[in-house]
Amino acid sequence: MTKVFQPDFRPAATRTAPPASAAPEASITKADTQDYFTEVADDYRAWSPSYNMHFGFWRLGLNPLRREGMLVEMNRAVGRALKLDQPRPAHQSAERRCVVDLGCGAGATARTLVGDDPSLFAVTVTNVAVQNRIALRLDAGAGVADRVAHIEADYTRTGLPTAQADGAWAVESACYASGTAKADFVREAARLLKPGARLAVIDGFLLREKPGRSAGWLHRLWADSWAVPTLAVRDDFVAALRDHGFDDIEVRSLRWRVAPSALHIPVLATRFALAELWKARGRLSPWRRKHIVASYCALVLGLFWRDFDYCMVTARRSD
């Protein structure tokens, strides 16, 4: 089982190139994305001291005014979607299971899941070195450093062995892959998962390839500000899952589940912007300014129901 944590970065000469995007993308590169996350790494602490770099999941019993609780609940929603809590055969009950976070940020989802389940070992993948440094510090504080491994790699070409993962997820990270189908991301997830293992993707999705004029403009502003090539088109993404050997595909809208945490944005973003502008004497770097702009855009984009939704997509790697 341990071999899953031994990346192999051989040249990908035998891999096929991902198909071209069905819709035009802005010229956001992987280097742009790395620069963005490197530059704003500390800024995410204002949203979550534990570096939960995503929206929260509200359910009955959670206080909608307490953002961190909802953010952690989103992590647990991932675990439920992967069905990691289901009983296992007796001969497998003592075996450690390996799960993979594709585009982990600072590893918050992995920390939650391995903290809840001693049988899990998590590998997180990010191409942003500073995020792994933050993750290592937080792992130690959470007491899970011996059960999480962080690798610096492109999540569409991780170098991890084939068919060794018992589950994989991407929380607000699949959007950073290319194209409206995110086929390169889906292909790698399919390669990593064992037959019968599950994938969970939580992200924003376009509901049609060509959104309305206002929604299209807002999507482009948001995407450029957060260094995203384009959101996936929901139907294209589902088709890519089928094409790469997934079945039991389910798309669930989380629009109302994330709304309470999204409503924290105006006050938090405004307070953060004013404080940082004051400290920097009105001079923020371009990516830090864009980060603030994107925060407001994310809230407004959610109002375009015909063009956009925030979904959980789950799928099973076919046998």
From TrEMBL:
<feature type="region of interest" description="Disordered">
    <location>
        <begin position="1"/>
        <end position="27"/>
    </location>
</feature>
<dbReference type="Pfam" id="PF08241">
    <property type="entry name" value="Methyltransf_11"/>
</dbReference>
<keyword id="KW-0808">Transferase</keyword>
<dbReference type="GO" id="GO:0008757">
    <property type="term" value="F:S-adenosylmethionine-dependent methyltransferase activity"/>
</dbReference>
<feature type="domain" description="Methyltransferase type 11">
    <location>
        <begin position="100"/>
        <end position="200"/>
    </location>
</feature>
<keyword id="KW-0489">Methyltransferase</keyword>
<dbReference type="InterPro" id="IPR029063">
    <property type="entry name" value="SAM-dependent_MTases_sf"/>
</dbReference>
<dbReference type="InterPro" id="IPR013216">
    <property type="entry name" value="Methyltransf_11"/>
</dbReference>
<dbReference type="InterPro" id="IPR050447">
    <property type="entry name" value="Erg6_SMT_methyltransf"/>
</dbReference>
<protein>
    <submittedName>
        <fullName>Methyltransferase type 11</fullName>
    </submittedName>
</protein>
<feature type="compositionally biased region" description="Low complexity">
    <location>
        <begin position="10"/>
        <end position="27"/>
    </location>
</feature>
<dbReference type="GO" id="GO:0032259">
    <property type="term" value="P:methylation"/>
</dbReference>
